[in-house]
């Protein structure tokens, strides 16, 4: 990371522009925070109306500060901020934290552009604007307006000051995790998510990154950085603005343009970013990812002291997509010696009736974690609360035996390199055992759904780490119209789109363009069996609706009649449409109909889609997404994410989809769009999978 950002986030001096003697003003409270919370650098108040504030000599402008300054905190009205940024550049400042609102989030786009220009001209990096501030926790640089973030090892990037406080309070409540930085990202006028992420990934105090986002200014650069660093630095994100109402709120709040949540979710997975469904999952999942070993697979063993907890855990884990493996004979035999009257020693392992023998809570995890079929362990039930909370229950435990069992669980996790997560009905009450577990980095939860979410995130993260080098790097080449085979227009005619696809080796169904009925007859003679005929016009998008499609035509007279019928119907539908003729193609056998396409997402950029197509595409809405450029691994993952796997495997008399051929087609489409930047949207629907392979029956290409 650049020396400039190191100076910005680890400054030896801070100038406060808008400094005040009024304790109610942000310009006073910022100086107070720096004085009273341990910042050991120089503090320079800036306000021409005062000689000194809180014992600090005060300056008329940043440019007057002797010897220059590293960081400028700005809390003055928006119209004056660009001038201050230019003065900060003259003073040699590395960066500025702009607390001020009133830029593009309220429609002041010209002022926002002036601020961005000032930053470029001055060489000053801007954090914000429109933020509470930042908190460099371990440097005691608290610039959040009298709020101090819970210290720890997570870097926090947020587009909402309140959400940053929310996550900090959650971390404080949980007691075993906190933050190295709390950075308000705001409008991203200059510094953007990807650059912050790059900085945090190299910071020695930061083990992982948590994100609250409503929409990124440059989501593509964030994905590039995330893919590069996520295998070493876990990233957990909560994205707000998922609904239409939420998107409207995000636009007014942070000047962001929220992308489609399904697209963003897929791109995050592709880059190794863990997206959580609720804000209260951010801290526990991030804690699990940064403090637990990375598992080799999704296989979870369950240890419980009650059948109910075991059953619920099994349901929740299975619904999360995790697997409950069968334990080996050797493991079951060892457990049988330990629990001779246990009702179940399969998986879940139920030790009901013997759980008061606290040492068993350590011995059993040691045995289970040694099982080669097990990647992770969930302990669920009452463990951790027997000694302190099991009122009226006679245990055979010696005092402090439960904390000692906790130490053995931590050691077993470390020795095997397999994560352990605890769910206990006593977790909210706390105990010495829980404190030992949390201090050792073992997650403890009072809800089994939270425990399962942590295990699910660990499994997904492990999968990403194993395959990160097989995934896209998200790098798009610079737009070069000279490289493109398509440079102008608004839409390609279907036959031109198909010819372009065929040049790239895509499996386009054979076709001929006929300008009159006789050419149509000649074209059909070159194919075996009946033919399909449809209008060829870039102006007619909905061909069936225009009466521009005739199917299963066999005789020459029927071909001539179909040609005339198509022309008459289209002329009535749109008299101004430019007609190139009629496409004649052989009929394709019935098969599974798929859709393959490319769309431009406002946050992610170009993404490829694949799913169930044909007339069912809108009714079923079963598609998967990945950001371009696509790799073979990305393509296979997409196909596996389609929900209708039974349909892909060939229902009843339908053939199975050739998954390798479909993956090749997805990569071909990716190459086509990357190499032809004029393509704004591509739609192949249907792509029919038959015993003979894939056939693209219809193709539409929209140009930018």
Derived structural class: alpha/beta
In percent, how helical is the residue content? Answer: 25-40%
Number of DSSP helices?
24
CATH superfamily of the largest domain: Succinyl-CoA synthetase domains
| Fold-level CATH name of the largest domain | Rossmann fold
Rg, alpha carbons? 31 Å
CATH architecture label name of the largest domain: 3-Layer(aba) Sandwich
- As laid out across the biggest beta sheet, the strand order is 9-8-11-10-12-13-14
Q: Which sheet architecture does the biggest sheet show? A: 7 strands, mixed
What is the mean predicted local confidence, pLDDT? 91
Question: What is the number of domains?
Answer: 5
**Intertermini distance:** 36 Å
Tally of strands: 31
Question: Which spans have pLDDT < 50 for at least 5 consecutive residues?
Answer: 243-258
CATH class of the largest domain: Alpha Beta
Shape: flat
| Beta content | 15-25%
Write up what this structure looks like.
The protein has 704 residues and is of the alpha/beta class. It folds into five domains: 1-130, NAD(P)-binding Rossmann-like Domain (Rossmann fold, 3-Layer(aba) Sandwich), CATH 3.40.50; 149-278, Rossmann fold, CATH 3.40.50; 292-468, Succinyl-CoA synthetase domains (Rossmann fold), CATH 3.40.50.261; 513-586, 2-Layer Sandwich (Dna Ligase, domain 1); 592-703, 2-Layer Sandwich (D-amino Acid Aminotransferase, Chain A, domain 1). The chain is built from 24 helices and 31 strands. A seven-stranded mixed beta sheet has the order 9-8-11-10-12-13-14, sandwiched between helices. Strands 21, 26, 27, 28, 29, 30 and 31 form a seven-stranded antiparallel beta sheet that branches. A six-stranded mixed beta sheet has the order 16-17-15-18-19-20, sandwiched between helices. The radius of gyration is 31 Å and the shape is flat.
